[in-house]
Design brief:
The chain has one domain. The protein is built from 5 helices and no strands. The model has no long low-confidence stretch (mean pLDDT 86).
């Protein structure tokens, strides 16, 4: 039979896991919305984007994920890709051409 201390410890653990995950997910989303490529550091931008996308729990193949990736690219990179004959349609293809 559980005693009061065991029940309390179980409650505290469960509470912490539930709300810590929510906060981490929300923070990752907020960081994604502010993420911008700095200079020519495309590899750093891609790595950070992938990390935050995973923490936010977003599907890489979702249209919103692709739009978020494009939004953070430096304007010159984005415009160069938009001038191509065949536009990339997935995050993998965008990452391959930048």
């Amino acid at each position: 039979m559980d005693n009061d201390e065991c029940l309390w410890n179980e409650f505290v653990d469960s509470f912490g896991h539930t709300f810590a995950d929510t906060v981490a997910t929300e923070q990752a989303y907020a960081d994604l919305t502010k993420l911008e490529m700095k200079g020519d550091e495309i590899d750093k931008y891609i790595a950070t984007f992938e990390h935050l996308l995973s923490r936010a729990g977003w599907d890489r193949s979702a249209h919103g994920s692709l739009e978020m990736f494009k939004q953070g690219l430096r304007k010159g990179f984005h415009m160069t890709i938009l001038q191509r004959d065949l536009l990339p349609t997935t995050i993998n293809k965008w990452q391959a051409v930048v």
